[in-house]
Amino acid sequence: MMLPIRQLAVLALLAAVAPRAQAQDALKVGAMAPATAPLETLDGKPADVSSYVGKGPVVIEFWAAWCGNCRALAPQLAAASKRHAGKIKFLTIAVSFNETVDVVKKHLATHPLAGDVLYDRSGEASEKFDAPGTSYVVILDKKGKVVYTGIGAEQKLADAIRKAL
Asked: Which of 5, 16, 142, 148 is deepest in the core (most CB within 10 A)?
């Protein structure tokens, strides 16, 4: 049986990042948030993660509409966003791998996410944050120091968020 091209692309991406994701050797806890690359709002306006850093704790997820782990993680992020409203900023960075802004907008119309959603058209922000794949979460404290990184559907975010506060 032949798999559709989209499924083959996703499998290839997962195979490429699997060893790195398992090792959790992405951004190191204790490091400062990297200088970021250009992002954009879903309306095409320029944006940058640096405008969020240093103004309070930030939870960042590298996300895609096609990502099953992201869908599984969404309720946990939504609950944390509600629980910590006004104390911590939630930021979703939609990756551009096999995904357009229109696909992101369409998905969000029926499946809203917590916090702000930005689009990484060039992939530079994903690269600077050493994102090993989608469902990658980085939590920064109020000074912009990394207090947590993790990937996958089964993440323990509550304790990490408490460290950021």
From this structure: 148
What's the whole-model pTM score? 0.83
Rounded CA separation 31/146 (Å)? 5
Q: How far apart are CA 30 and CA 138, in angstroms?
A: 11
As a whole number of angstroms, the distance between CA 65 and CA 82 comes to 22
Tell me the CB-side half-sphere exposure of residue 84, using CA atoms within 13 A.
Answer: 25
State the Cα–Cα distance between residues 34 and 85, nearest whole angstrom: 25
- CATH number of the domain enclosing 74: 3.40.30.10
Average pLDDT score over residue span 14-31: 55
Give residue 101's domain range: 5-164
Phi, psi (degrees; rounded to nearest 5) at 134:
-75, 165
